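Researcher: We're teaching a course module on how sequence relates to structure. For the next exercise, students receive a sequence and then see the predicted structure as tokens, so they can try to spot secondary structure elements on their own. Here is the exercise chain.
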Amino acid sequence: MRSPLPTRMKTPREADEKSVRTVAGRLRERLERSAAEAVLGREREMDRILRHFDAEGAVVTFVHGIGGIGKSSVLAAVAPRLADRGARVTRLDGRTIEPTPRGLLSALGEALGARAPFGDVEVMARELDSEPRATAIVIDEYDRIRLLDAWLRHELLPALPERTRWLFAGRFSPHAAWLTTPGWSDAVLSLGLGSLDEASCRALLARRGIAEESIAPMLGLARGNPLALELAARYTSAPELSGLAENAVLDALASRCVEDLTPPLREAVDAASVVRCATKPLLDAMLGRPFDDALLGELADLSFVERAEDGLVLHDSVRHAVVSRLRALDPDRHRALRSAALAQLERASKDAAPTGASAWRLTADLLFIVEHPEIREAFFPSHETKLSIDSALPSDRDAVFAIAERHEPPEIVGAFEHWWKHGRGFFDVARDVTGKVLGFAILAASSAVPRAILEGDALVRAWMTDLETGPGRDRGALFHRRALSADYGEDPCDARGALWLAAKRAYVARPGQWALYVGTRQQPAMLRVVQKFGFREAGIRAGDDATLLLEFGAAGIWSWLRALAREDVEPAVGGWRVVESSRGLSVDGRSIALSPLEYGVLVELVAARGAVVTRDELLDRVWKQRHTGSNVVDALVRLVRKKLGPHALDIETVKGHGFRIAKANSLER
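Model: And here is the predicted structure for the students to work with:
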């Protein structure tokens, strides 16, 4: 079984074994204590998990609940008990796994000590068949690889020996597809962790040495959340927090704990909050000085800091509180920390290999610096989605082509027929909780597209010609033929958004590729949405179909991510810009709050790149209603101009039409 104490990720230039041993020693004591305490108040849940690992029990168990509720501790306590029952137990951290079939198979092969890498599902099945014991695969932070749900359900798990059991932990409950897919309803256990009972809370605080007379106010604050109990143990009274909601109390307690740290340690926590995983090289770069071993040990010893395989990670609840404070009170320092981290990651990416586990970790680090929500949500989800993205099944054909025929002309539907006949595996579908298909997308690597599809699809044939005669001919590209929803076609909606997120994951998982080609019949509207990510008109057409092109750059996906992150962290020097991360405005370096409507109007005007946006268009896109004859748009534009101060005239009124941004240098996003 893999050690619960992974070593700190080392770079070729940074390796300090002494500091690793020191930190690991301190963490070992705390982890052993936490594993023992996980049983407090969790006896019933522990018993259910262990029972379901018997021969007739659940194949997959999901442990889920809000931040700080104790999911990781339950996993840490269950693992040795499974080993005591004779199972071979393998533990993985979802944060370190590339969220692709290739990435998970590679991580599983390494963790299981396979004789050869798991190149495909069959290789893994043979390896597990040769193992006489039951195998228990425990994956914490499952939310980070949740996009593999469909592949796990349809391909990996059905191919493995029946004695293989899986235990996942994450914030979100299993998607309904796990319960509605034929054959799976009796094979899945969904186990939600609630608040600890009062007796367990009292016992946990007593083990922390808290006096009996001080326990009652802490119970009122923590409300049964184990992490909140840990944080509340620092305070005997905090009446100002008693009326807050549970998540708000956790944020407030986290903020107070950080404020009480020594200045050097608080500075280190601030730095660790803006990166996915804090390592010594990153901390050195962000703080502008060598980060000494003693301080590294203190940081690792904090109750809200966890040691992951590749560094130190702040608990999400604490990270949220720290970042919120930095953005609100010291936005320049927040930006400077991110900028220094990005510079270090840029240096690391220049020497890194484009494939393998270390490549994915570097990609994940860059993704974390990028604050575009459309990209972050694909890899670091902040909320639960009700839609699942699955590979299309043969039985989905009628639903897919009903959508296509509703929104596309016959010649394009015919091209889709060629895709289905010769490459159904390139179709993804978005399903609701009942399994109904709400949308579909067609996405393929250029190298995998069969000739029969090229012969039947003029647009893709033109893409292939453009690729093979251009600078990307030796690197390949992704072809995103179409994404359509049942009700809205190419217009924005939940189903289409979920399909686009899946596409982003697909091209981020191929770091060396040259470009992404996207087919659309709504080029102007689509371009307004995606040009902020670097898309441009490619001038490649076939009938009603046009092409948007995203060229990633010399270093592939890393070049693109570095450019996006650099846009986020570059300080404003004069002028103004919309700040997507805070949904606010920066005017001559000052942060200014915007209402949701003000932010929406500015985003539409900026996205138009100097073109006129009519009042009706603003009402439709921002207010989500048609023109009613009122002057609400003009009134709101006046408020926005007032906030722009000396740059108010940058928003120009075009009489009889609408508004536009007058200065090109005001278009920085």
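Model: If you want an answer key for the exercise: Residues 1-29, 664-669 have pLDDT under 50 and may be disordered. Residues 388-560 form a domain with the Aminopeptidase fold (CATH 3.40.630.30).
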